[in-house]
Design goal:
Layout lengths: L3 E4 L16 H13 L3 E2 L2 H10 L7 E8 L3 H13 L4 E4 L22 H9 L3 E4 L12 H19 L5 E3 L7 H9 L4 E6 L12 E5 L6 H9 L3 H4 L1 H25 L1
Parallel strand pairs: 1-3, 1-8, 2-3, 3-4, 4-5, 6-7, 7-8
Amino acid sequence: MTPVLMYHEIAPRSATSSRLAVTPDAFAAQLEFLAAHDFSTVTASAFAAAQAAGLPRPARTVVLTFDDGYADFHHQALPLLRKHGFTATVFVTTGWLADAGKHRAGRPPGSMLSWSQLAEMAAAGIEIGAHSHQHFQLDQIGTDRLRAELTVSKSLLEDGLGQAVPGLAYPFGYSGAPVRRAARRAGYDYAFSVANLMASAGQDRFALPRLTVKASTGLDAFGRAAHGRDLGQLYRADQLLTKGYALVRRSRALAASVRGR
């Protein structure tokens, strides 16, 4: 099985307090680990296509994904990826782009990528995917707004980059059956949640799981995630928290639907 790793910021401690931020030194060490252990990388699209077709994937293959569209991907992660000949997929929140212009929406969490940087990344073989337009919790918004979140981000990226954008990562990892149906109708080929699990045979291609890499992920833990080992132990606390919060969210959604009748 192929692990799909999820990153956010690649930034020094002095630049961010996010528990999801991985320092450039730690990221460099992680890529060195992959290179030293003969790992190869594939894009999220290549992974999703092989998964949907039930095709076996080479051993020691990993997918590197980055959410939100932080500018540090361009000046911190991209040079390190190029050094090792690795690829990645960046899921972009289009309303947060640095030069979003009239399409600006929401409050960006930091310094974000620009259109020219996205174009440079795409030319370098980095896959660009959508991460919605305003980064809403998609399972908590109405049908019309959900449709706009999914279609606007996809069309902006496709028009701006001049290439297809087949992939989606749900903000916060939240989806649910209605959101997944909306993603299909919006024309996506696949979508990622989080879940901190490995994708299994026959997995819904609109509910593909990923493994979180964060500030506290040491190199030993990273190695076990890359090899797909001891994941229950590595992510037990995260999985329990996810399950508990899923119950809360379902209750909120049910209450909202009752109020809306």
